[in-house]
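User: quick one, sequence for these C-alpha cells?
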C-alpha cells in the first residue's frame, strides 16, 4: 500500500510539472492586487494607480541656460524611447493640428466672455497680451489679431504650473524638467524596467558635474531603489540563515547529509503550492508567495522531528495533528472574499500536505542510512518560580500595547524613502509649485465625442484641473467656438485691429474654416487621459468638496483615500476571521485529545504570543497595519506546532522544537534589520511572536516526554 501511495505521489508531482511547462506560472507584482480583487471598480483604481505612478521627472539644475539645454539633448540621445515616452516628442503633430483649427479653440475665460458678448473686456485683455513685452504670438498677428489662440495654449498649463519646454528660475538657479512616462506595456515587467532605470541612474551620474546636477523623481525610481536594496539585503539574510541552519544541524546531528531530504521536501512544498495557486487563480501574487513560502517554514519542523526521533511511529500523531490544525486554520481563509487571502490559504494547504506526505511516505526509506551514532538531547526548562514573573510581564505588555494601540492603513506608511529621494521630490514640488492633492473624475461615454461633451459640462464647475476636453474640444464645442470668434470679428475687429490692412480685416471676417474638426489622436501623450476607449480621466487639483461633483456616468476617485480604505477593509476582515479560526482549532484539538482543557492549553501559547507581539509593536510606537495583522496567522501557524509537539511529541521532541524555534527566530530577526519598512516590521513582529510562543509553551504546557539524559541550554 505504501509503495502504491509513493508512486501516486510521484505521478501527481510529475503531472504538476508538466502543467507548469505547458502553462507557465504568472506572477502578479502589483502590490494593490494584494488587496483589490478583480472587479470593475477595483480594476479602475489599480489602472489609475499604475498610470499615474509610472511617471518619472528628470530635473536638470544648472547656472547657465546653455548647460541645461546641452544636458537635455544628451539625455534624449541616451534614453530608450521604447521604454520612456516624453511629451515633447508628441507635441509637434498636436501643435500643427491646433494651428490648422485655431478658429475652433478658446480658453475657458475667453469663451465665457464671448458667450456674454463682453467684447470690451476681450479687447482690453487682447491689447494687454499684444503690448506685453514678454508676450509671444504663436500665430501671425494677421491670423490671430486678438491673440485668442495664444491665450488658449497658455491656458493648457493651468493645473500644471511648469512648462516642459522652458526653463524655471528658483533660488538663483535654472531648472529644466523632462517628464517621462514608462511604457504601460512594460510597466509590469520589473526586470526590464529596473534594467532601464539603472541605465537612467548611470546616465544621471555621468552627466552630473560641477555646473550641472540631475535629480530623478517618480514612483519607478523609488521602486528601483527599494527593490534593489531589498534584494541585496534579503540575499544576504538567506545566506546567513542558511549558514546558521547548517551550523545548527551540524552542532546537533553532526550530519549535513540530512539537509538533502529536508531541502527536497521544502522545494516540493513550494513547487506544488506555487503551481496549484497559479493554475487555479490564473496568476499568483508576489506577496502570496512571500507569506506562504515563509509559512512553509513550518515544514522544516516535520523533518527535524523525524531526524531527532528516527522513528515515524513515535511522531506520526503529532505530525498529523500539526497538519490538521494548520490546514483547518487556513481553510477558512478560502471564504474570506479577498483573493490574496484565498491564495495564501490554498498555497499553504497544498504545500503543507505535500511536505507531510513526503516525510511520511519517503523519509523512513531514504533516511535510514543517513543517520550516524551521534546523539545530543537538548531541553530547556523554566523554573516554576520564574513562570509567574513571565506571565505578569507578558500581560503587562499586552495591556499597555492594546491601551495605546493605533491603526494606520495609509499605504504610504509602509515605505519611507531615502533622504536623497525625498530631497529630489521636495525640490520638484518647490520649483513647480505643485504641492497639491490630486484626485480624479472618471467619465464614461459611448464614444469620444460623448465623453468630451460630458467633460465640458463638468468643467463648468471646476477650477484647477486637466482633461482631454481642454486639449481637444468636442465637435459641438469647436463649432460653437468658431461661431463665437466669427461674431467677435464681425462686431469688433474693425475698430480693434487698426494695425491690420482693410484687406486683412476683410479676409479674417470672410475666411472659410477648414473642413472637419480637431480630432483626438491616441498615438500622442494625450492618450494618458484615456483609461480605455469608453472612459477618460479628469485630473483634479486640491478639490475640497468632491461630493458636489455629481453626474451620470461619472465617478470620483481619490487614490490615496480609496486605497487606504480598501487596506482598512482588508485589515478588519483579517481580524474578524481570527475568532472563527480559533474556534475551529479548539474544536478539532478537543476531538483529537478528547479534552477541551488540553485543546485550550495547546492553542493558548500561540494566541497569547500573537497578542503579545501586537502589544509589543504598539509599545514601540509603531502603528498597526494590515501586514501586522496578517503576521498573526504566521505566528499561529508556527507557534501552534511548538505546543502540539511539546504536548504529544516523542521523548526527544524538545530538541527539535528548540532547533525549529532558533532557525525561525534568527531568520526573522535578520529581516527586522532590513531598510524596507514593510519587511522590517514583519520581521520584528514575527521574531517577537515566535520567541514568545515558544517561551509560553514552556510555561503553560508540561512536556509529555523529555529525554532521560538532557543537556540544558
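Assistant:
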Amino acid at each position: 500500500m505504501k509503495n502504491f501511495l509513493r508512486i501516486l505521489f510521484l505521478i501527481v508531482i510529475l503531472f504538476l510539472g508538466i502543467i507548469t511547462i505547458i502553462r507557465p506560472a504568472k506572477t502578479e507584482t502589483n502590490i494593490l492586487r494584494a488587496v483589490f480583487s478583480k472587479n470593475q471598480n477595483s480594476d479602475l483604481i489599480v489602472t489609475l494607480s499604475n498610470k499615474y505612478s509610472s511617471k518619472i521627472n528628470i530635473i536638470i539644475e544648472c547656472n547657465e541656460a546653455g548647460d541645461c539645454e546641452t544636458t537635455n539633448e544628451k539625455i534624449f540621445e541616451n534614453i530608450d524611447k521604447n521604454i520612456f515616452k516624453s511629451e515633447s516628442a508628441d507635441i509637434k503633430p498636436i501643435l500643427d493640428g491646433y494651428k490648422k483649427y485655431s478658429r475652433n479653440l478658446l480658453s475657458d475665460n475667453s469663451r465665457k466672455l464671448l458667450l456674454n458678448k463682453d467684447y470690451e473686456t476681450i479687447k482690453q485683455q487682447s491689447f494687454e497680451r499684444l503690448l506685453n513685452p514678454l508676450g509671444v504670438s504663436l500665430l501671425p498677428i494677421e491670423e490671430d489679431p486678438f491673440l485668442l489662440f495664444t491665450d488658449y495654449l497658455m491656458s493648457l498649463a493651468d493645473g500644471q504650473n511648469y512648462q516642459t519646454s522652458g526653463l524655471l528660475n528658483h533660488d538663483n538657479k535654472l531648472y529644466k524638467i523632462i517628464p517621462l512616462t514608462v511604457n504601460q506595456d512594460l510597466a509590469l515587467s520589473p526586470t526590464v524596467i529596473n534594467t532601464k532605470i539603472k541605465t537612467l541612474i548611470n546616465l544621471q551620474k555621468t552627466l552630473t558635474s560641477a555646473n550641472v546636477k540631475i535629480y530623478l523623481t517618480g514612483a519607478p525610481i523609488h521602486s528601483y531603489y527599494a527593490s534593489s536594496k531589498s534584494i541585496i539585503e534579503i540575499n544576504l539574510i538567506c545566506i546567513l540563515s542558511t549558514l546558521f541552519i547548517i551550523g545548527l544541524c551540524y552542532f546537533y546531528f553532526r550530519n549535513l547529509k540530512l539537509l538533502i531530504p529536508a531541502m527536497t521536501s521544502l522545494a516540493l512544498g513550494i513547487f506544488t503550492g506555487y503551481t496549484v495557486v497559479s493554475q487555479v487563480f490564473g496568476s499568483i501574487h508576489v506577496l502570496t508567495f512571500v507569506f506562504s513560502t515563509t509559512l512553509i517554514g513550518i515544514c522544516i519542523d516535520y523533518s527535524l522531528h523525524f531526524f531527532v526521533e528516527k522513528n515515524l511511529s513515535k511522531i506520526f500523531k503529532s505530525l498529523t495533528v500539526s497538519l490538521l490544525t494548520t490546514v483547518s486554520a487556513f481553510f477558512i481563509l478560502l471564504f474570506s472574499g479577498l483573493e490574496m487571502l484565498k491564495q495564501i490559504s490554498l498555497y499553504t494547504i497544498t504545500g503543507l500536505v505535500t511536505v507531510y506526505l513526503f516525510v511520511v511516505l519517503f523519509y523512513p526509506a531514504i533516511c535510514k542510512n543517513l543517520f550516524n551514532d551521534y546523539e545530543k538531547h537538548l531541553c530547556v526548562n523554566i523554573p516554576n518560580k520564574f513562570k509567574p514573573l513571565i506571565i505578569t510581564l507578558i500581560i503587562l505588555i499586552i495591556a499597555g500595547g492594546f491601551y495605546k494601540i493605533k491603526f494606520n492603513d495609509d499605504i504610504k506608511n509602509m515605505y519611507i524613502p531615502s533622504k536623497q529621494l525625498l530631497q529630489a521630490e521636495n525640490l520638484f514640488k518647490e520649483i513647480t509649485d505643485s504641492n497639491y492633492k490630486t484626485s480624479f473624475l472618471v467619465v464614461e461615454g459611448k464614444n469620444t465625442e460623448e465623453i468630451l461633451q460630458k467633460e465640458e459640462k463638468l468643467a463648468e464647475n471646476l477650477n484647477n484641473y486637466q482633461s482631454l476636453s481642454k486639449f481637444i474640444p468636442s465637435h459641438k464645442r469647436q463649432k460653437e467656438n468658431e461661431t463665437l470668434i466669427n461674431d467677435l470679428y464681425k462686431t469688433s475687429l474693425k475698430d480693434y485691429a487698426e494695425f491690420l490692412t482693410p484687406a486683412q480685416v476683410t479676409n479674417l471676417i470672410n475666411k472659410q474654416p477648414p473642413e472637419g474638426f480637431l480630432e483626438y489622436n491616441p498615438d500622442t501623450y494625450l492618450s494618458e487621459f484615456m483609461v480605455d476607449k469608453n472612459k477618460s480621466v479628469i485630473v483634479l487639483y486640491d478639490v475640497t468638496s468632491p461630493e458636489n461633483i455629481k453626474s451620470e456616468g461619472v465617478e470620483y476617485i481619490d487614490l490615496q483615500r480609496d486605497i487606504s480604505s480598501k487596506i482598512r477593509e482588508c485589515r478588519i476582515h483579517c481580524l474578524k476571521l481570527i475568532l472563527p479560526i480559533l474556534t475551529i482549532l479548539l474544536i478539532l484539538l478537543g476531538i483529537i485529545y478528547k479534552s477541551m482543557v488540553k485543546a485550550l492549553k495547546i492553542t493558548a501559547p500561540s494566541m497569547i504570543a500573537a497578542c503579545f507581539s501586537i502589544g509589543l509593536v504598539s509599545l514601540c510606537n509603531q502603528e498597526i497595519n494590515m501586514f501586522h495583522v496578517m503576521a498573526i496567522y504566521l505566528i499561529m501557524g508556527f507557534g501552534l506546532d511548538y505546543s502540539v509537539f511539546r504536548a504529544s511529541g516523542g521523548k526527544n521532541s524538545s530538541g527539535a522544537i528548540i532547533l525549529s524555534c532558533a532557525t525561525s527566530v534568527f531568520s526573522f530577526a535578520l529581516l527586522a534589520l532590513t531598510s524596507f519598512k514593510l519587511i522590517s516590521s514583519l520581521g520584528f513582529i514575527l521574531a517577537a511572536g515566535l520567541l514568545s510562543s515558544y517561551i509560553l509553551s514552556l510555561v503553560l504546557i508540561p512536556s509529555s516526554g523529555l529525554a532521560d539524559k538532557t543537556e540544558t541550554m
